[in-house]
């Protein structure tokens, strides 16, 4: 029986609920699935027939170590997503590259963790209010919403970033329309989930009180998500496009290619499709 190892993290070494659905779908196809933290003992990865990066949700704390770990995996077969693709996706500056290819990104600039630099970026973008976030982050860690005239808020945001990052226009519709995650197996769309923040917040993650529900996005939105994924070079096994979907247009938030929550608890059939896509690659 072939062994597939799902990479997790030392902080949360067990499989997440959604990944247990995927593990069950792989088990139904004759695979064994085990979890092992990327920043723990490496024996499981060495012995695995395939490695799938899943809940490595602490990598942003030690991005250099994680990049080195991915580099060590690059020489072996059957690592998903491809390590080079994941390394390119680690820093949120990839969003600026996608904007250069025509992705509908909110006005965004790279910035150093300095209040004057944040203020200068807001001036350059013509923003009275902005989102500030570090280039390495997960579940909205290090994120702040700032106003240009609030010197104390700018200083606090710079300190919270603790590293270079991005200044980005706030998309206020996220508080009402929410953020929709378009999930792909390979480059085939499988399902979508809309996440909405709690009142008074813009963070949609469950960790911050957000709620999610299965979504039925219009055909144009699915087509636009396909277009955005096509801007990414390489061959992902899985991908998630996060966007705010407005009336006939979309604002890209993230292209998640490393360790996205794939929401298989909302769509077990999608887990079966990803399991099938993995089986095709292994064969």
UniProtKB/TrEMBL annotation:
It comes from the Bacteria. InterPro entries: DcsG_Biosynth_Enzyme (IPR053191). This is ATP-grasp domain-containing protein. It comes from Hyphococcus luteus.
């Amino acid at each position: 029986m072939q062994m597939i190892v799902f990479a997790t993290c030392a902080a949360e070494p067990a499989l997440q609920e959604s990944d247990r659905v995927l593990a069950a779908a792989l088990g139904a196809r004759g695979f064994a699935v085990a979890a092992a933290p990327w920043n723990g003992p490496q024996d499981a990865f060495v012995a695995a027939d395939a490695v799938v990066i899943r809940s490595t949700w602490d990598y942003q704390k030690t991005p250099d170590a994680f990049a080195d770990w991915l580099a060590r995996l690059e020489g072996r077969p059957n690592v998903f997503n491809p390590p080079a693709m994941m390394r390119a996706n680690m820093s949120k500056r990839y969003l600026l590259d996608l904007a250069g290819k025509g992705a509908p990104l909110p006005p965004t600039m790279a910035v150093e963790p300095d209040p004057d630099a944040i203020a200068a970026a807001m001036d350059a973008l013509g923003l009275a209010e902005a989102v500030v976030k570090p280039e390495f982050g997960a579940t909205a860690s290090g994120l702040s919403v700032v106003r240009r005239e609030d010197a104390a808020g700018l200083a606090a945001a710079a300190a919270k970033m603790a590293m270079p990052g991005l200044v980005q226009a706030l998309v206020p519709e996220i508080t009402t329309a929410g953020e929709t995650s378009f999930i792909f197996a390979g480059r085939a769309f499988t399902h979508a989930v809309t996440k909405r923040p709690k009142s008074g917040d813009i963070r949609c993650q469950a960790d911050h009180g957000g709620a999610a529900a299965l979504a039925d996005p219009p055909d144009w939105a699915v087509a636009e998500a396909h277009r955005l994924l096509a801007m990414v070079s390489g061959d992902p096994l899985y991908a998630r496009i996060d966007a705010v979907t407005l009336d006939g247009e979309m604002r890209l938030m993230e292209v998640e290619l490393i360790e996205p929550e794939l929401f298989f608890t909302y769509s077990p059939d999608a887990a079966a499709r990803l399991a099938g896509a993995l089986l095709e690659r292994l064969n």
